[in-house]
Amino acid sequence: MTSTSLDEPAAGGPPLLEGVGLRKTFGQTPALHDAALQVRESEIVAVMGPSGSGKSTLLHCLAGILLPDEGRVTYAGRDLRSLSDKERSALRRTDFGFVFQFGQLVPELTCLENVALPLRLGGMRRRQAERVAAGWLDRLEVSDVANKRPGEVSGGQGQRVAVARALVTNPRVIWRSRSWWPG
Ligand SMILES: Nc1ncnc2c1ncn2[C@@H]1O[C@H](COP(=O)(O)OP(=O)(O)OP(=O)(O)O)[C@@H](O)[C@H]1O
């Protein structure tokens, strides 16, 4: 598994997000072995590697979704392990935008409600949250599916709705998880 910076990182300054010495094992299966990654403000990074090499596990540890067995993750100078579950959830809601590989949208909600969900969870009123969400659906060119449920839209439309939901809170870190495909 390797990481590549896709642009010139902002010069100097500490990394916004850093993982050091990360290890994670699921039962007998080692997923991460001494993994490390640094991301600076405004930097775009691709993590590449074969299926099962630990990319999702790495991203989940860096985002505080999973706690590594060993190692440290620091975001904006704060060690994620020092935060409570509630604080880590709040951080994910406000600072991280995630586009998952599968099953990311809530099937019972319309696409508009899915995009508005992070804002609603943050306490925004429905009408305002849906107005902001509608703006993102428009930017992603999927306004026409706003009132459909995820099961009624194409795979590409669903991915765009998921991207809109990841961006709706203006997060500082955006994750896009997708399997590497050889060839
Ligand atoms: N919840 C889990 N329980 C048990 N094993 C797991 C779990 N999640 C991941 N693994 C195992 O950990 C290893 C790394 O998985 P991970 O999902 O991080 O790989 P990946 O590089 O993201 O794969 P892909 O490109 O196929 O999505 C694999 O061997 C996988 O089977």
TrEMBL record:
PANTHER family per record: ABC TRANSPORTER RELATED, IMPORT ATP-BINDING PROTEIN
The entry's keywords: ATP-binding, Nucleotide-binding
The ABC transporter domain, residue ranges: 17-180
GO molecular function list: ATP binding; ATP hydrolysis activity; transmembrane transporter activity
PROSITE patterns found in the cross-reference section: ABC_TRANSPORTER_2 (PS50893)
Xref: InterPro entries: ABC_transporter-like_ATP-bd (IPR003439), ABC_transpr_LolD-like (IPR015854), P-loop_NTPase (IPR027417)
Pfam family, one: ABC_tran
One annotated Gene Ontology cellular component of this protein: plasma membrane
Protein name as catalogued: Putative ABC transport system ATP-binding protein
Signal peptide residue numbers: none
